[in-house]
Specification:
Elements (H helix, E strand, L loop, with lengths): L2 H25 L8 H13 L4 E5 L3 E7 L7 E7 L26 H17 L7 E7 L8 H7 L11 E7 L7 E3 L2 E4 L2 E9 L3 E2 L9 H19 L6 E9 L6 E2 L2 E10 L2 H20 L4 E10 L2 E3 L1 H15 L4 E3 L10 H6 L2 E7 L21 H16 L2
Parallel strand pairs: 3-4, 3-5, 5-16, 6-15
Antiparallel strand pairs: 1-2, 2-4, 6-16, 7-14, 8-12, 8-13, 9-11, 10-12
Helix pairs in contact: 1-3, 1-9, 3-9, 5-6, 7-9
Length: about 400
């Protein structure tokens, strides 16, 4: 038996089943760390496939285990996230969300369905490969501190540690049948920045009698832009953006307090620490220079997603074997964040994309009410994932 062809045949055979799994998950989405129905449904499928698992990590997380011949030879892990977003679905699908105000707008339903499909293939073919494959069904990717970090803290890998971890994610602008890889730094860290400017408010017509907290907040925002433009090397992609400013005064009232909230994204863990200290120092000193104060609260978010060069290169080669050279693309960096970065801090990892573009190029973007994926992509997703797992064990 040629193993690659066997995987492809099983992917075609199981394709409709995986589509139905995805539709069920799409119909019953659950928010981060509340994936109770989702978890029970996935556990039921693993039992149906005869795959042992442990459940209850961070309440809903699951780690399944498939053992091939010579199970101790090598251990790898495959990861899928399970949570949905607080979005009202726009599309009128026959399997649209039954939980009003909650939607799988980031493709996590497809990720979980694809991992179940890959698991069924790998279990069916377990006499043909050597080693052990862990299946990570992870809660809470969308909300800090992230399910990846919490699952590891709760001992998801205490019993068996993987040598590498593979994850995949939908990409709306990529054609169905294509996958994309990026060696090295791929996705940015993501921290939340909260600033509170405090001073003496008062009548807007008498600025000499007060601290103009609105003006001070404006100076702080402008001064902080120097961090990216003047203090961070140009070869380190970095973004510092502020999207929320609350100055609850009036046309003639300067408030005593102005609240500012934003996000810090960077591709370098060393400079991530340096930048956060610069934010703190510049914000506080700017306020002090204008006789006010600024409280700084930076909430640490997800670390950089770094794709191990050798692991990613091998995965890319394996994907080309499975799909053909023309179906494998080189990805660019993304300033979006992913809690998969916690895995890449501790283990060699690769995090890649698979295309879900609708026919005719119609695209609903991630995290929007109009996101809808092309279900034909699922066969590529779970078949490729199964093949990457087998090749990574060799």
């Amino acid at each position: 038996m040629e193993l690659r062809k066997g995987v492809q045949q099983l992917a075609a055979q199981y394709s409709q089943e995986v589509i139905e799994i995805r539709r069920h998950l799409h119909q019953y989405p659950e928010l981060s760390f509340q994936e109770y129905h989702t978890s029970k449904y996935i556990q039921g499928k693993l039992e149906e496939y005869g795959i042992p698992f442990r459940a209850g990590y961070v309440k809903t997380g699951i780690v399944g285990r498939i053992e091939g011949r010579n199970k101790d030879k090598r251990v790898i892990a495959l990861r899928a996230d399970m949570d949905a977003l607080p979005i009202v679905e726009e599309k009128h699908l026959p399997f649209r969300s039954q939980n009003e105000g909650v939607m799988h707008a980031c493709g996590h339903d497809a990720h979980s369905a694809a991992l179940l499909g890959a698991a069924k293939i790998l279990s069916t073919l377990k006499e043909y490969w050597e080693g052990t494959i862990l299946l990570i069904f992870q809660p809470g990717e969308e909300v800090f501190p992230g399910g990846a970090k919490l699952m590891m803290e709760e001992g998801a890998f205490d019993e068996v540690k993987p040598e590498l971890i593979i994850g995949q994610h939908v990409l709306p602008n990529m054609p169905v049948g294509h996958v994309g890889f990026k060696e090295g730094m791929y996705m940015a860290s993501g921290d939340e920045v909260y600033l509170t400017v405090k001073g003496k408010g008062g009548h807007g017509a008498l600025p000499h009698t007060l601290n103009d907290t609105v003006l001070i907040a404006s100076h702080i925002i402008v001064n902080l832009q120097q961090i990216v433009s003047r203090m961070v090397p140009a070869n380190i992609p970095t973004v510092l953006s502020f999207g929320k400013v609350i100055a609850n005064g009036a046309t003639n009232v300067i408030p005593e307090k102005v609240e500012i909230a934003g996000t810090l994204r960077t591709m370098d863990e060393k400079y991530r620490v340096i930048i956060k200290e610069k934010i703190r120092k510049i914000a506080q000193m700017t306020a002090e220079s204008m006789d006010a104060e600024c409280e700084v609260d930076i909430k640490d978010g997800y670390p950089v997603v770094f794709n191990d060069v050798e692991v990613t290169r091998r995965a890319k080669q394996a994907a080309a074997e499975y799909l053909g050279d023309g179906q494998v693309e080189e990805m660019d960096i993304r300033m979006t964040a992913e809690d998969f970065g916690y895995y890449s801090l501790k283990y060699p990892t690769t995090f890649y994309r698979f295309g879900v573009q609708q026919d005719g190029g119609v695209v609903g973007q991630l995290h929007t009410p109009g996101f809808i994926l092309n279900e034909a992509a699922l066969e590529t997703a779970f078949g490729t994932l199964a093949w990457l797992a087998i090749r990574s064990l060799e």
